[in-house]
């Protein structure tokens, strides 16, 4: 695990840096294109309540993706990254995007392939909008696109910050624990426990807030290759205006919103297919 210190926040952002498989591995795939140009580095960002270091290793290990160098970035206040003083870091989507940019700048990376899921998709969109030099290809997986539209974020943001900190956070984690125990799982309960209540609430409010341009507009205005992934079993995701603006839409089979666990193999192969035309 590697780390980058955010001096203006006083916190460390930590991330897994997976080097990618050898070109002589058993995938039957080579590195680079026919002209010999190197593969882009892939950068992954997970969703609200999640941690990239927990949600994505089994996805990037799939043969369709494992030859790429992959950076799995835990957002500020999630996973193995430090939480931050709310007076210095507001936990907005824009600030999360700037923190990811700091990681890429520290590593001297440009033109990466950024894959973001849910909140991570919105962070990836903002990163591509603010720092297009860092993003060569954008893959947004069921991101928040429009003001006021969300599920978990709407549940959290409907409460005042004080109420969520005092009662709502613990109540949410109790429901997650009950539901995951019934399903024989425990990952989301663990990762939500790495979020601070203030960080989760302020990030949720930011995800749903009015902004100009909206996430949808930022996505449609991008000049790099852009793809949007949606689960086969996700109902009602609004794809309006995306394909006419050059955003390719790809369906993850046998998956709903939590595609990292609903069908990780299908998620990996869909990501690979989504970026193939851009290579």
How are the SSEs placed, and which strands pair?
Layout: E1 2-6, E2 11-18, E3 42-45, H1 52-55, H2 57-60, E4 70-73, H3 93-106, E5 112-117, H4 119-130, E6 135-141, H5 152-157, H6 161-182, H7 187-192, H8 197-208, H9 215-221, E7 226-231, E8 247-252, H10 259-262, H11 264-275
Parallel strand pairs: 3-4, 3-5, 5-6, 6-7, 7-8
Antiparallel strand pairs: 1-2, 2-4
Helix pairs in contact: 3-4, 4-9, 6-8
Outline:
By secondary structure, the chain is of the alpha/beta class. It has eleven helices and eight strands.
What does this structure look like?
The protein is an alpha/beta fold and 279 residues long. The protein has one domain (2-150, 209-278): 3-Layer(aba) Sandwich (Rossmann fold), CATH 3.40.50. 37% of the residues lie in helices and 16% in strands. The protein contains 11 helices and 8 strands. Strands 1-2-4-3-5-6-7-8 form an 8-stranded mixed β-sheet, sandwiched between helices. Strand 1 and strand 2 (11-18) form a beta hairpin. Helix 4 (119-130) crosses helix 9. The radius of gyration is 18 Å and the shape is globular. The model is unreliable at 27-31 (pLDDT under 50). It holds the Pfam family Abhydrolase_1.
Which secondary-structure class do the elements indicate?
Answer: alpha/beta
* Helix and strand element order: EEEHHEHEHEHHHHHEEHH
Major sheet: 8 strands, mixed
Mean pLDDT over the residues = 94
DSSP helix fraction: 25-40%
The count of strands amounts to 8
CATH topology: Rossmann fold
So, the CATH homologous superfamily?
Alpha/Beta hydrolase fold, catalytic domain
Query: Any idea what the CATH architecture is?
Result: 3-Layer(aba) Sandwich
Strand numbers in spatial order across the main sheet: 1-2-4-3-5-6-7-8
End-to-end distance: 28 Å
Q: Tell the overall outline.
A: globular
Portion in strands:
15-25%
**Count of alpha and pi helical runs:** 11
CATH class: Alpha Beta
InterPro entries: AB_hydrolase_1, AB_hydrolase_fold, Carboxylesterase_BioH
GO molecular function, one term: catalytic activity
Protein name: Pimeloyl-ACP methyl ester carboxylesterase
Domain AB hydrolase-1: 40-151
